[in-house]
Amino acid sequence: xxxxxxxxxxxxxxxxxxxxxxxxxxxxxxxxxxxxxxxxxxxxxxxxxxxxxxxxxxxxxxxxxxxxxxxxxxxxxxxxxxxxxxxxxxxxxxxxxxxxxxxxxxxxxxxxxxxxxxxxxxxxxxxxxxxxxxxxxxxxxxxxxxxxxxxxxxxxxxxxxxxxxxxxxxxxxxxxxxxxxxxxx
Length: 185
Description:
Blueprint: H1 3-34, H2 38-51, H3 54-73, H4 79-112, H5 125-147, H6 151-169
Helix pairs in contact: 1-2, 1-3, 2-4, 3-4, 4-5, 4-6, 5-6
């Protein structure tokens, strides 16, 4: 067994760990959005916080194994390598600085009066935007890593991914429209 194959395996495991954590957080965030009170939302915010601990480890493993594979089989001056690394750094910054800070702000607001309605406290546009941009960026990075386009193509791929992710967040900035209950006769 070659060390490159082991690095590729570890790289894919880290990607799967990050993707699974993203799915758990996405589910928790939808539950937070539909919570009536802070008391209903706070446990889901706790799940988001504890699950988010996966990301730094996954990102370090991704960068370390990716660096090894580039060193062994590719060139550091390939555009897709630079864009992939920049994308991973962006994921870390957005997740930690924007999404994490917004999550703390929301938790603090809801914890002040847990029995009060959540209201618009759970509709923070930055929180929702990063929560949809990051998974879209991951898909963009995976696309770049597998297709290995030129620098321009790699930048375009991540740009399109980020725009699509941001667009997906816009409906999440507002409360869902309540539908009146139907009475069956």
